[in-house]
Write a structure and sequence with these properties.
156 residues, 5 helices, 0% strand, transmembrane, membrane, transmembrane helix
């Protein structure tokens, strides 16, 4: 008997490929990570050439490089269908993307790319993919509550 997404011959799980919208989201996240990495290197180089606020720029550059690395790692996990990767990328987009919308034309473009990429992760085709690949499990001991019946069990 076949259950879920298993191959009828071998009984092994069939891996559904990511939908096109998720591939587009992964590609835009890689572009965004490259832009973040470039910005991080730019901050560090600026700190080395300027002698004002160099510590702050170096720390900001390091933070942006870490965000870039986390983004690339999450994109790799995203293609495997991990919900945590989608949530991590969405968090990065919200925390870094919104402030960038108010920082000038170049950074506005990066903010828009981050937020649009996060929106693609939550489209219906993406949701179906994640439900197939990484279904939510209920914690042990929890159950779906039944509809409350009036006293007497609803009998008249």
């Amino acid at each position: 008997m076949r259950t879920g997404n298993t191959s009828p011959a071998s009984g092994t799980p069939v891996r559904t490929p990511p939908p096109p919208i998720l591939r587009i989201a992964a590609a835009t996240w890689l572009v965004a990570a490259a832009l973040l990495g470039t910005a991080g290197v730019s901050f560090i180089v600026s700190a080395r050439t300027q002698h004002q606020d160099s510590t702050a720029l170096i720390l900001l550059g390091a933070l942006v490089l870490v965000l870039s690395a986390v983004s690339v790692y999450s994109v790799l996990r995203l293609r495997a269908g991990k919900r945590s990767a989608r949530e991590t990328l969405t968090s990065i987009a919200l925390i870094a993307g919104f402030p960038l919308l108010f920082r000038g034309p170049t950074l506005i473009a990066v903010g828009v790319i981050l937020l649009a990429s996060a929106a693609l992760l939550w489209m219906p085709a993406s949701n179906r993919f994640f439900q197939q690949r990484d279904p939510r499990k209920r914690p042990a001991g929890t159950r779906i509550p039944r509809r409350a019946l009036p006293p007497g069990g609803g009998k008249r």
